[in-house]
Specification:
Blueprint lengths: L7 E5 L6 H11 L3 E5 L7 H9 L5 H12 L7 E5 L6 H10 L4 E6 L18 E4 L2 H6 L3 E3 L20 E8 L4 H14 L4 E6 L3 H10 L11 E2 L5 H9 L1 E6 L10 H8 L3 E4 L15 E3 L12 H4 L7 H5 L3 H8 L17
Protein name: Eps11J
């Protein structure tokens, strides 16, 4: 990787379960001088909703926000951006003009189709990484680099005996996730499996909005949901007490979620709706059960819960650590092929 010791990195990343803090911390451990800012110029549920639907309505606010940052920033060696939806193009131009030797890096932990306006900004980045296998096929400039796990999820206890839960579901209730949770809940009841649920929504009004407009929520109770995020330490604790973790990615995404790598590091079995997981070098059908999200009835073999987790080769697992993720992002000679079993699967 490039030597980032002593280098000045301007880092824009959304607030996301404190991962922005973990990335900053690791960069600083490697000797970099890091200035982190939220890439969103707006906060709150309404502002983020506007961002998803019509980001141009926030253009003036973004200009003021980003201008203030770069006007108070000294000479830069790197611009490191995750997602990048809100950074204005003229700000990108100004950063590059003020820092002729700067290296600009974009990492996408969402699919291009979900990030409005991002394609217009590709030309301003020297390197673009994506966690999405299909986007990396579609855009020649893209380099495939999956997400990571942080150290607190590493766990040597793979034994399934004395676990409190057979299945745990922890996450933001997006897209069709609640419908999937209901299917898994029904399976758990019918098959005498103990299930833990933590269903996060941003605000209580979001629940009532969904209840009116979305059929799947008609019978839902507000008490099924939390409007405060679950701390990562609590997630790790519940995971330790669970045999298998539910992972339901957004239906428009094929990239593996952060939860996938965290639970793999924690040596937990995974129940997932993402068929692309079979392409990765850590896939093992003993540890991972895939089901089609369109299925009306979920059928998971009872043996899946009774057999032990088969450990992943440590060298393979280490490649998904946050330390290796950062090294790869700042490595001009990075080889994306090391993560694949089958690169050509569509």
């Amino acid at each position: 990787m490039d030597d980032i010791k002593g280098r000045h990195i301007l880092f824009f990343c959304p607030r996301f379960f404190k991962y922005e803090n973990e990335i900053t911390k690791q960069l600083e451990k490697m000797g970099a001088n890091v200035e982190w800012f939220d890439q969103r110029s707006v906060q709150g549920t309404i502002g983020r909703s506007i961002l998803k639907i019509h980001p141009r309505l926030l253009a003036i606010q973004s200009q003021v926000y980003y201008s203030k940052i770069i006007n108070n920033t000294n000479k830069l060696d790197y611009l490191f951006v995750i997602e990048g939806q809100m950074i204005p193009i003229n700000i990108m131009k100004k950063i590059k003009k003020n820092n002729p030797d700067i290296k600009t890096i974009l990492y996408l932990w969402d699919s291009v189709s979900n990030i409005k306006g991002i394609k217009n900004k590709f030309r301003y980045f020297d390197t673009i990484y994506s966690y999405d296998q299909l986007d990396c096929k579609k855009y020649k400039k893209f380099i495939f680099r999956p997400l990571f796990y942080i150290d607190e999820y590493t766990n040597d206890d793979k034994h399934i005996s004395h676990k409190k839960y057979d299945i745990s579901s922890i996450g933001t209730v997006h897209s069709d996730r609640y419908a999937i949770i209901k299917k898994i809940r029904k399976y758990a009841i019918e098959n005498n499996k103990k299930m833990f649920e933590f269903n996060y929504l941003q605000k209580k009004w979001v629940f009532y909005f969904k209840k009116i407009l979305n059929y799947e929520y008609r019978s839902a109770n507000v008490n099924e949901f939390s409007f405060i995020k679950m701390d990562s330490k609590d997630i790790a604790r519940v995971s330790e007490e669970t045999v298998a973790i539910l992972d339901a990615q957004h239906p428009k995404n094929v990239g593996l979620t952060m939860r996938t790598f965290e639970m793999t590091a924690a040596q937990k079995k995974i129940i997932t709706t993402n068929s692309y997981i079979v392409n990765y070098n850590f896939y093992n059908e003993n540890n991972i059960f895939y089901f089609n999200r369109e299925e009306k009835h979920i059928r998971i073999p009872d043996s899946f819960f009774k057999t032990e987790f088969i450990p992943i080769d440590q060298k393979v697992l280490d490649e998904y650590s946050i330390q290796h993720w950062i090294r790869d992002i700042f490595d001009e000679n990075f080889d994306e092929n090391k993560f694949y079993i089958n690169k050509d699967t569509d």
